Amino acid sequence: MEIRELKAKDLKTLAKMLGKLQPSSINSIMTGLDRKKNQMEVGLTIFRVIAADLTDDIYLWLADLISKTPEELDAMSFDTPIEIVKALIARGDFADFFGQATRLGKKKPSSTTS
Q1: 99 falls in which pLDDT band (50, 70, 90)?
Q2: What residue ranges do the domains of the chain occupy?
Q3: Which residues neighbour 41 within 8 Å (Cβ) at sequence distance 6 or greater?
Q4: What pLDDT is attached to residue 27?
Q5: pTM of the predicted model over 0.85
Q6: What pLDDT shows up at residue 112?
Q7: Rounded distance, CA 90 to CA 39, Å?
Q8: How far is the C-alpha of 59 from the C-alpha of 41, rounded, in Å?
């Protein structure tokens, strides 16, 4: 499975997702980033927080990262979403990327539309 590089469009996608999160969820992410835990731990914490609130959004994004449709991702191994996240984290820039997206998501005013 090939995972494409993170691009500018991913920052926009993540900022939109993070903008939908409850303030307590964003605080959990920021706390993890501020504590400077290892990147794998930070990345998995971020994934758990986002996936708990935004399952459909994160699923669409993960499918896009591997150039698959959500239906094709459905047919893959149950651990594929976690493997995608782990591969992104292993690249070394995952926590910083999510930190930027989180800050963008916090700056955007809440929207009542999806």
Answers
A1: low
A2: 8-107
A3: 32
A4: 76
A5: no
A6: 44
A7: 8
A8: 20
CA dihedral sign, ordered 76, 79, 82, 84: negative
- Taking the CA atoms of residue 91, residue 22, residue 24 and residue 14 in that order, the dihedral angle to the nearest 10 degrees is 10
Q: Is 110 exposed, middle or buried (0-12, 13-18, 19+ CB in 10 A)?
A: exposed
Q: How far apart are CA 95 and CA 65, in angstroms?
A: 17
Alpha helices in 22-90 (DSSP H): 23-34, 39-53, 55-65, 70-74, 80-90
Pick from 59, 83, 58: nearest CA to 73? 59
Residue 63 corresponds to which tokens in the numbers above?
């499918």
Position 79 confidence tier, pLDDT thresholds 50, 70, 90: very high
Q: How far apart are CA 62 and CA 9, in angstroms?
A: 13
